[in-house]
Amino acid sequence: MEYAEWEPVYLEIVRDLGLDIGEDENSVRVLKALTLNSDLAMDDVLAEAIGTEVTVFGDAGSLEEDIGKAEPRGTLISAGSATDRVVEAGIAPDIVVTDLDGDVDYQIEASGSGAITLILAHGDNYDAVVRYAREFRGPLVLTTQSRPFGTVANYGGFTDGDRAVCTARHFGAARIFLHGFDFDRPRLRSGDDPERSRRKLEWARRIICDMNPPGVEIIMP
Q1: Where on the phi/psi map is residue 172: left (φ > 0), alpha (ψ -120 to 50), or beta?
Q2: How far is the C-alpha of 127 from the C-alpha of 114, rounded, in Å?
Q3: Residues with Cβ within 8 Å of residue 32, at least 6 apart in sequence
Q4: 0.85 exceeded by the pTM?
Q5: How many CA atoms lie within 13 A of 6 on its CB side?
Q6: What is the pLDDT of residues 137-168, one digit of tens each?
Q7: pLDDT at 202
Q8: Going by C-beta distance under 8 Å and a sequence separation of 6 or more, which residues neighbour residue 3?
Q9: Percentage helix, strand, coil for the chain under 3-state DSSP, each rounded to 5
Q10: DSSP string across 66-129
């Protein structure tokens, strides 16, 4: 997804959830500054890594059951907060898409094992960016949900799961298998606002399902 297509959706999300664009962009500038000496990867690396078939792992309660129902296929992309469960299931993700929530140690471990990590910086994860960004040793792609610039990309999407799907679609995936996705029941952690989490899932459903382009098949177990 190009930014011209994503921008009106982003601005609608900003209005719906009360986000601060300036804080989003400030967090991105900090991420960029902290990773000057990191192994930054560009579009060609993702284009080579993402095939026509992709499995995206989300963090819904059904993840392990979904993995048991259907063997993951193609390029394996883990939404950040699902990575610990994916690794514990014996699966090594090829790509991790994260805004640095969940058990970040597993995400850092996956990076050290060669996974490409797409790190999103936004207004709500500034502290996590400062704490973790320099810990990733594998290839990094810096991303924003606002306007991309320089080495900072935006392939569309808002939550880790739908950004993973948007990234797969951007680089030519034609069949995307979703494991661990539930658009009706958010998996809440301590301190989560249930209503805000529900609205985020509504956006994820819209981005993945309603905005799915012709020629791309979304498959759930």
Answers
A1: left
A2: 25
A3: 142, 150, 151, 152
A4: yes
A5: 20
A6: 999 999 999 999 999 999 999 999 999 999 99
A7: 96
A8: 147, 148, 154
A9: 45, 15, 40
A10: HHHHS---SEEEEEGGGHHHHHHTT---SEEEESS-S-HHHHHHHHHTT-EEEEEE-TT-HHHH
> For residue 157, what pLDDT is reported?
97
Low-confidence ranges of the chain (pLDDT < 50): none
Q: What pLDDT shows up at residue 193? A: 84
What is the strand order of the sheet 75-79 is part of? 152-153, 140-144, 116-121, 95-98, 75-79, 53-57, 175-179, 217-219
- The rounded distance, in Å, linking the Cα atoms of 31 and 4 is 23
Query: Do residues 180 and 66 lie in contact, with contact meaning Cβ atoms separated by under 8 Å?
Result: yes
Q: What is the pLDDT of residues 11-28, one digit of tens each?
A: 999 999 999 999 999 999
User: Which residue reads 């900072």 in tokens?
Assistant: 152
Whether residue 175 contacts residue 75, with contact meaning beta carbons closer than 8 Å, is answered with no
CA distance 62 to 66: 6
